[in-house]
Design a protein that fits this description.
The chain is an all-alpha fold. The chain is built from 6 helices and no strands.
């Protein structure tokens, strides 16, 4: 068999397989698009007493700033209620432990390995 004929046969087979795989994936994606997605239903209760109690609890928790400027007062209250970084990131948090990891031994090992490398 000649090389040119063999190459044509391989191209034909690869094209057929790609067409088959694309058709299968496209039908799968079309089915996903057609499926109706369920959205969560949010219902609002009309208990005004519950709302009032909740607002009173929030007002009791917020410190009062009376500077005379409403915008400044709200900014100061938001700042007072934001958690500190220590409260935001726990010590057992994987991201926190990754960031605060001691990379000294790793850097020494990389430096030692680089010494024997000759470009």
């Amino acid at each position: 068999m000649k090389l040119n004929a063999f190459e044509k046969i391989i191209r034909k087979v690869v094209r057929e397989e790609i067409d088959y795989a694309l058709k299968r994936e496209l039908t799968f994606l079309k089915e996903e698009l057609v499926k109706p997605t369920q959205t969560p239903q949010i219902t609002e209760s009309n208990n005004s007493s519950v709302k009032k109690e909740f607002r009173q609890k929030i007002q009791q928790q917020m410190p009062s700033f009376n500077t005379g400027n409403g915008t400044l007062d709200s900014l100061l209250s938001e700042t007072a209620l934001t958690p500190t970084p220590e409260e935001t990131f726990s010590t057992n948090d994987p991201v926190n432990s990754f960031i605060n990891k001691d990379y000294g031994p790793l850097m020494k090992a990389m430096k030692k390995k680089k010494e024997h490398f000759r470009p």
